[in-house]
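Residues and backbone
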Amino acid sequence: MQQLMAHDFQKQYQETLRVWVDLNQRLDLPDKINLDLQLIPNSPAADKSRLKVELENAGYLVRFYEHDETVEAYINNIETDIDTIWLHEKRTSEIALSNGYEPDGWGFLDPSTSLK
């Protein structure tokens, strides 16, 4: 719980907004995207199994990177707007922080490339 309270969600939101504005100005974004959110361990007590269960219970698909400890949560076919992206980023960040992980960025694909 201490990690969650110490995390600066306002700073995280401002960075998300900055990235969103930049992408929106440079790209012709589709109406829907598949959003992926990367999470990395930040504590020796990081619990990958519990993180996976909690993310899946919240409606996210989960995969583990082979080359490092990154966990990726993703959700397919969501609205392409800052409010929806932030909703999912904040939700996954809260789950991550309560399991010894922290957010490490996000990205997206066009829904025609759905992840399974």
